[in-house]
Design a protein that fits this description.
The chain is mainly α. The chain has a domain of 53 residues. The chain contains 4 helices and no strands.
Length: 76
């Protein structure tokens, strides 16, 4: 069981990493941290970007869930 969780953890982590790297950069520097880039982010996104966001959130939550499972599995 532990080996299967570790393999799933590595696969989900790799997929999550690739999905995060596929996101387009939005920032232009420190000014965006203080609201300078509001106009660019309020313009909306395409359906591809929304689906990429959804997949990234799903795999990130799955990664967190597998992390918790592994902690309890290895703690026994």
């Amino acid at each position: 069981m532990t080996i299967a969780l570790i393999v799933a953890y590595l696969i989900v982590g790799a997929i999550d990493l690739v999905l995060i790297l596929l996101h387009s950069g939005r920032g232009g520097g420190i000014s965006d941290m203080f609201g300078g880039g509001i106009g660019a982010s309020a313009a909306g996104s395409t359906s591809v970007e929304r689906n990429l966001d959804r997949m990234t959130i799903f795999f990130s939550l799955l990664f967190v869930f597998l992390t918790i499972l592994l902690v309890f599995q290895l703690g026994e």
